[in-house]
Amino acid sequence: MFYGEFKHNLDNKGRLILPSLFRDVAKENYIENFYITRGFEGCLLMFSEQEWRDQESKLKQLSFTKKESRKFSRLYFSAAAKVNVDKQGRFLLPKYLKDFANIQREVIFIGVSNRVEIWSSETWKKYYESEKNSFEDIAETLF
Question: Looking at the predicted structure, is the pLDDT value of residue 8 above 90?
Fold first, then answer.
């Protein structure tokens, strides 16, 4: 559904612009709202509303009597923000999420099938440089 890598900047009002290809996907799939929360390795996770509900259903299956389940759910859901993308593709990223992902100005949007990851440009460059050579090894291990 969401594929590719795109560079964008925060505007003067602190808004991001969803890449045009992602806006096209949203329009084709009648996606009006997204949810953004803390991700892994320093990125933010962005889900369509339907995908968010699907993820939420899976996480509800975790036992609240287990400490790690409670911890994960607290950190994951407490950071969640529902965002509306306007007709120009702009949306406001809350400050606490910008702070978490160390986003100053330049961001990288990564399409990862059912989700979008939002990275600070600097964090993405470091991550990519450190991981790009392990791609084949990971594929061999996973498949």
Answer: yes
Of 64, 34, 72, 69, nearest in space to 52 by CA: 34
Domain total in the chain: 1
Distance CA(104)–CA(124), nearest Å, equals: 13
Q: Express each pLDDT in 44-76 by its tens digit.
A: 999 999 999 999 999 999 998 999 999 999 999
Place of tokens 């953004």: 36
CATH number at residue 88: 3.40.1550.20
Question: Kindly report the CA angle at 117 between 131 and 68, in degrees rounded to 5?
Answer: 85
Q: Is the pLDDT of residue 32 over 90?
A: no
CB 39 within 8 Å of CB 117 = yes
Task: List 33's β-bridge partners, or say none.
Answer: 84
Residues sharing a CB contact under 8 Å with residue 132, sequence separation 6 or more, in sequence order:
none
| Cβ(89)–Cβ(18) below 8 Å | yes
